[in-house]
Amino acid sequence: MMPDRPRPAVRTSPAVTVVIAVYNSAAYLADAIGSVIDQSFDDWEAIVVDDSSTDASFSIASEIARRDGRVHVVRLEQNRGPAVARNVAIRSARGRYIAFLDSDDQWLPDKLERQIGFMRENSYAFTCTYYEKVTETGERTGKIVAPPARLDYADMLKSNRVGCLSAVYDCVEMGKVYMPLILKRQDYGLWLELLKRVEFVHCVPEVLALYRVRTNSLSTNKLEMLNYNWQLFRRVERLSPWASFYYLGWNILRKVIE
Hints:
By secondary structure, this protein is of the alpha/beta class. The protein is about 35% helix and about 20% strand. It has nine helices and ten strands. Strands 1, 2, 3, 4, 5, 6, 7, 8, 9 and 10 form a ten-stranded mixed beta sheet that branches. The protein is globular and about 55 Å long.
């Protein structure tokens, strides 16, 4: 556990709210939250929503919150899934900017400083960053995920290029936007909804986060991911079967290239 050390004063209206949904991530959670605490940009709050974990996740998060008043912990009485957990945090958010971090991933120390500066300097309402894949044990691989400089709605339908750990949106410009209540690919659904409200998501061309590839993650099962994309296109985006096939084809092509 991280040692006690002086922290910036808790602000009633922080610039950024960091949304962290947790389910049985005791092995990684302290590192994830610690990477937020270690940010050079300190005007933030983190809302950690424990989705009724059966391991030590809640106690780990609660201990960190005891040491740093910018960290707030909510525990759901029943397991509801990541969309509900993240939406609980979004609903309680006080920050202008909503950022996301999964409980097994990490940010590099200047992530918020670079990304919020990028948004303010260019008046961008929705941004992402490059990120690097790491092994399950946290070893850096040098494999960089580098989205294009900007993507629009049609681009995003062809392939989700935005990592959840890298996304930030401005809720003053777009209002609070929530994740669709679907089993998987909730983050993809949110990006598509945001791109109905703003023309582009713009990318900071720097590696600012670390994505942990776990053996049981959806990203390691490409066929299952495509099935969930199909459900997203048909049930949430309400695309026609032909349009869904078209964009699913682009998704398949992207996976082959990767």
